[in-house]
Each structure stands twice: as structure tokens, then as C-alpha cells.
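README, section 4: Worked example with a bound small molecule

Sections 1 through 3 covered apo chains. Here we extend the same pipeline to holo records, where the ligand is supplied as SMILES alongside the sequence. The molecule in this example is zinc ion. Nothing else about the input changes; the structure line simply encodes the ligand pose together with the chain.
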Amino acid sequence: MPDELRKPDACPSCSGTEIRLILYGLPSDETLQRAQRDEIVLGGCTIWDEMPDWRCMTCAHEWFDPTDPVRIEWDEFMAESEREHREKIRKHREV
Ligand SMILES: [Zn+2]
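The generated complex, written as C-alpha cells:
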């Protein structure tokens, strides 16, 4: 993603400030190094609609900010690909 999410100031659950960005997908070398430096958390390759963007290192709470412009754009993109996917399946069945 070209744009960066807004980093939350504190955990909404425990107000802790040890917060890491969760990155999804196959990690690049750079991403792996960042994970080893404890700057980010690897979220695995599975991507779903309500996936959290942030993890609190104090209480392990995971969440995302639905008002973040980058997040809104991402959710719209996900909804669009979901629609296209369903459309393909429907067309396939009609053939
Ligand atoms: Zn917390």
C-alpha cells in the first residue's frame, strides 16, 4: 500500500502505547527484518474483510480504525474484488 495508516496513540483496550502494525501477505526481506527488529507483526497470508491493522504488545488486543482514510480505501477495494469474484462465479454457473 502506498499510503500509511495513522498510528494510534494508545490501545483502545488497555491504553498501552506499545503498538505494532500488523502486515499481511508474503513478507519481503525488508518486512522480515522489520519483524525481527520488533517494529511490526506478521499477520500471515490470509486476508479477510475485518482483519486488524494494529496489535497491542501489552494486552494482545488487535483492532483497526474504521475511520482511517487508508483503511476505508482498502475496505472499498476488498468489497469491489469480492463483487467481481461473485460475478465470475455466477457467470461460470450460467455457462
Ligand atoms: Zn492493550
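What to look for in the output: DSSP finds two helices and four strands in the chain. Residues 50 and 64 are 8 Å apart (CA to CA).

Section 5 describes how to batch many such records.
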